[in-house]
User: What shape does this take?
Amino acid sequence: MDTEMTSTTKTDLKNLTLLALEKFLQGQGKERFRATQIFKWIYQHDAGSFEEMTNISKELRAELEATACISSLVPEAVEEGSDGTRKYLFSLADGNSVETVLIPIEGRNTLCISSQAGCAMGCEFCLTGTFKLTRNLTTAEIVNQIMAVRRDVRASGEEIRNIVMMGMGEPLHNLDNVIPAIQIMIDGNGLQLSNRRVTVSTCGLVPEMERLGREIPNVNLAVSLNATTDELRDRIMPINRRYPIRELLRACREFPLPGRRKVTFEYVMLGGVNDTLEDAKRLLRLISDIPNKVNLIPFNEHEGCGFRAPTQAAIDAFHKYLIDRHVTVITRDSRGGDISAACGQLKGRLEKPGPA
Ligand code: SAH
Ligand code: SF4
Assistant: This one.
């Protein structure tokens, strides 16, 4: 993301971490400490204009007005599912759109945010993936998803507790914008989320996992494993041909997880494809030397996709196999199913690719 000032465009301050904002102000001959004040106005008071920043001089406000702006997103549509899940559709300035899903779990709101419009990774079972990558979201567009939903949530006296980057796109394919966005989320002067409440989910881009670990060592890592042999994973997740299971697991093992935290392994259960006890057995063998927990996600069917949901019996048997061997397993219910807000069903307002 180019955050440098140019003579023609204003700098959107929501693309800047606190450090970058300090540099921006210094570049204009201003005191660094102003950055903290401005940052707090933006993220804690949700200021949308410089006028509101009453502890900043009129002169500085006027100067900022000329060189900078503060973007925001307003949901274009909100759908609520029968289970309380809420899906927000946001239109971006260039006509693209993204979706964000609020999942209230026992009063603890989890927000599932998008990192790209579409996705380049092309996983066979994923609806977002069938649309290819349209573009990366900017840092501002990532944090604005949170801020727009927070406005809504706060209106009913609640807060967003957890952020999961499991919406549209592959966050590690857009690290240049995702890293500053996470820094803003966890900054004490920013969105003030604890880093243990932010989870990045990846299909397994190994060098980027290493970079994420170096730059934000305390973030939670979720890895979409989804298959237990390279043969199958190559077929359903093309990224595996570049970074096969062995390498992916090595990167998980080396990821700097503090304290007693664990890597979450997501496992989409595809009926008749990867849902047998043999698969469960191999899964356990693969992850057992990594502090782990497992998220079983029954495949959500979507039109035009050859895969099928697993049977309840297959889900139960897989789940039980792991639980009996002391693995922490959560089987996701099909949250948001009736409003297509479930995993892998987000698509923004993207048109289906035409027949080839
Ligand atoms: N690109 C990242 C994050 C977004 S996908 C990743 O792949 O991890 C979030 C999760 O949804 C992944 O675990 C993915 O495997 C899963 N998923 C994709 N399509 C799905 C579908 N149709 N049904 C159930 N889960 C799906
Ligand atoms: Fe992209 Fe994740 Fe979907 Fe794969 S599962 S296509 S990486 S969004």
Q: What stands out?
A: The chain is about 30% helix and 20% strand.
